[in-house]
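$ ./design --mode recover --in tokens.txt
reading tokens...
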């Protein structure tokens, strides 16, 4: 099952199997999968549901279904497809806790909130990553390729958390972490 989850194809979406999964990795893989399938499916996840409206003397009002045009139907279909694709990516265990969400944006936001936490938790995570960066160093007996891989993983986590270090700081940290010969 782990291999199947790692060896996704363009036809199979990534899976979020349990609460211990790396959500950042899932999020990255899922967005890439959506881009391959249909780039328009990102809109409902990021912007929310499409509600066709029309302008009347009373202002903007919901458009009756009988007057939907092809674009309205496509956008509404995109909402349902995005929800469907996202929901099949979730294990039964995770999906059961999120059954009250019926639109793609609501489900996506609930996943982010469950796995990444609220703003305070995200700020705490950023603080921990900054501390990990500051404390990063060679571990006795570690190979250079292993050290580099560990550092690259940390830098990827830092960048995905929107923490900014300039390239000089990153290079200095890596060079200062190398073992003495």
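writing sequence...
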């Amino acid at each position: 099952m782990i291999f199947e989850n790692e060896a996704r194809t363009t036809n199979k979406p990534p899976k979020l199997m349990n609460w211990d999964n790396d959500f950042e990795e899932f999020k990255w893989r899922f967005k890439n999968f959506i881009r391959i399938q249909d780039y328009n499916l990102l809109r409902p996840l990021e912007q929310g549901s499409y509600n066709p409206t029309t302008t009347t003397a009373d202002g903007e009002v919901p458009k009756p279904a009988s007057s939907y045009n092809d674009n309205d139907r496509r956008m509404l279909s995109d909402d349902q497809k995005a929800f469907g694709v996202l929901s099949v990516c979730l294990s039964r265990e995770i999906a059961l806790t999120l059954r009250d969400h019926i639109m793609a944006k609501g489900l996506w936001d609930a996943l982010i909130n469950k796995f990444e936490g609220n703003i305070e938790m995200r700020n705490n995570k950023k603080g921990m990553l900054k501390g990990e960066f500051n404390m990063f160093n060679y571990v006795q007996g570690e190979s250079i390729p292993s050290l580099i891989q560990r550092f690259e993983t940390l830098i990827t986590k830092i960048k995905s958390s929107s923490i900014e270090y300039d390239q000089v700081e990153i290079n200095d940290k890596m060079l200062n972490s190398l073992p003495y010969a």
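exit 0
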